[in-house]
Every structure is written in structure tokens, then in C-alpha cells.
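Two proteins were folded this term; both appear here.
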Amino acid sequence: MPLVDSFGRVHTNLRISVTDRCNIRCFYCMPDENIRFKPRSELLTFEELARLASVAAGLGINKLRLTGGEPLVRAGLHQLVRVLAAIPGVEDIALTTNGILLAEQAQALRDAGLQRLNISLDGLSEATFQRIARREGLQRVIDGIFAARRAGFERIRLNAVAIRGITEPEIVPLAGFAREHGFELRFIEFMPLDAEQHWQSEQVLSGEEIRRLLEAAFGELIPADRPDPSQPATDYDFADGVGRIGFINPVTQSFCGDCNRLRVTAEGQIRNCLFSIEEWDARALLRGGASDEQIAALLHASVGAKKAGHGINSDEFLRPARAMYQIGG
């Protein structure tokens, strides 16, 4: 049976975190220091991840996205991609990365069957990069972006987290960069998933505000078709025909009604929402001799318990104990 929740949403997308480790320290995702990463023995092996993905594919999951932490710090990631690409029913495999290690791995990932890339790029100035990432590395990200294009990736999307008081000067340059080089750009509202729990609603630079800034610089933005109603972004085309821009507005414009995503953390906990406060332990089943049917039942249980939405702006909202790097971006 397919994975359908109590609101009729059919789940076809699984986000797989392969590690909680990262080589930078973006404040919207993880703390700067004193981090306790999961012991490597607690992380799911590639074989365990492949088995879980295979069971999920048998239930209708056809899109996989590899996340972290920073997934490229997991040694031999292209080997996992090759195994996942061979699973019957899997039609699409994507990767979310900060791009620091992408130049060295892009070709191997492409050859293994990776189809799409989302690369974090919050700004084009080193000062902004270091203010957010708390490490150096902007040029390595840029190098990784163009290495990916040379490796044959045609679907490269740039993701920029929008934070009031920090990223406003980066908005127009980022859009210009994306338009010049043919990359799709998406702005993401700052969410309450930072490890140090400093998030305040006043820091949210809304998608609507960004759209107005872009229209002042480039002209009208035309609403684009939405072939996939479950996608989190609202897309626009530039009126001059050069490029597309997207806005992911989880704080000001909920898109939960069409959500089709499940997540598995690096240590094998199933989550039915990015903001879930409940988890289902797949690792215990994978390491405890469970059958595929039992793993499928766990996935069904998680989907069956899914709420209508994350409720960020409601009085009942409970911030998850985990930060973004512990969940999987």
C-alpha cells in the first residue's frame, strides 16, 4: 500500500541524512563549538540506508534526496548513490550540499547516477559568508558550482537562506549571478531550527519582501507553472525571459497542505515533518533482524501520525529539540 496520511497526502519523497557532521558552522543550522556528533557506529551504514530506501520504494517512494550535516564529508558517498540509483522504482536522486567539497567529488557523483544538486549559497561576499558560516570557504563553493556544471549536472539549484539584517545586500547580486550563469535560485525564509536557539521572528526576511527587491532591480516577476504541487517553492520567471526564481516561505506562507516528504536522520530515526517532535526508530529494526514488512509498517505508522502542518505561527507550536544538522536539511 502507498504511504498516505490521514489527510490524503501521498508520500513519494524521502530525505536521507547520511551524517550529522559538517565542515562549516552556519548559525542557522548548528552551533559554533562544543558539538557532540553521533558516534559513527550509530550512523546507518550504506547497506542499511539502501535497504530502508528499497522498502520505501516498494511503498511508492520514487524521489530520494541525500542531506546532512554536510553529506560530502561522508566518505565514499558516490558508492551509496550508485546503489540507490539501482533500486527499482527510484526515479530521481538529488543532493543538498554546502559545496565546499563538491569540486573534488562532482564527477564521481554524476557518474554514479546523481541527477540533481542543491547548493547552499547565502551570499557572494566573503564577509557575509563568514558571518553566517563562521568559517572561510566562499571561493571553494563557487569552484564547486562550476565543477558540477563541467561534470554534466544540468539541474543545479542555489539555495539562499534569507536573514534580516544580514542578507539584504546579497539578494540582487545573487539573482544576477544566477541569471548570468543559468542557475535556478531559491530564497528560503529563516526557520526556528538553529542549534543555539537564537531565532526570532523579527529575523525572518520574507519571500514577499525579497520579491519586491528583485522586481525593483530586474522588473516584473511572472508566476511560473507548478507542475509538482508538492514542491515547497513558489516559482517566478523574470519577465525578460532570463532565469527563474523561487521562494520557500515556511514561516509566512505554509505549504504543508501538499507535503509528500518523509525524513530519516543519520542514525536512522524516521521523521514525518521537519518540525516533528516524534520519531520512529528504523535503526532498531534494521539491526534487530526485522523483516521488510515490519520496516514498511514503521513507515506507515510515521505517515499515519503526520499532522496537518508544522504550525510555526500557532500558539501550540513546539520547537523540535533537534537542530537542522541533526535532522537533515
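Next, the second protein.
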Amino acid sequence: MMKLIAIITLAISLNSNASCIGEAQFIGQVSKLQKTTTSCKATLTLNSFIQSSAVCPLNDSRLFVEGFEIGLNSEKECNFNAGDDISGVIVDNGTQLILE
């Protein structure tokens, strides 16, 4: 009976993680920006505080390697500058990390 409960629990957790959208709260500083004509990506300094979701954790290393989308303002400039303090929630939409 215990084996059956363990198998069911494992199956439920694997199934729910398949549709899980990784997310994390963070407080940090923008280390660099990558701007294109349609987007702006930021990376964080290594001393940033990151708390991944216990249910759907975010791959934290992607924040420092790939960066995350921070968007452009109405003047087509990045919403933040290198060196700015920044905080919020970052989610993985399946193709990129986005500041919510």
C-alpha cells in the first residue's frame, strides 16, 4: 500500500512539474544590458538575492548567463540602466526569462 501511495505521489508531482512555469523573486543590481530594436535583456550581479519558488523553481544560473527581458519604454530605451537596483518576480515563459 505504501508503495502505491509513493508511486501516485511521484506521478502527480512529475505531472504538475511538466506544466510548471519557473519563477523567482529577486533583489539585485543590473550588471549589463543587451539592447535590440525590439527588446532589452538585463543580467544581474553575482551578489543578487534570489529566492526561487518552492513549487516551480527557476533555474537561477540563467539569470547570470542568459539574462532576462526587462522591456523597452515609450522612447525605445531599456527600462533600466547598468548599475540600477532592481527587484521583482522573474518567470520562465518556456523560451525566455521575463521580469513581471
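Residues 21-99 form one domain. The first strand starts at residue 23 and ends at 35. These notes refer to the second protein only.
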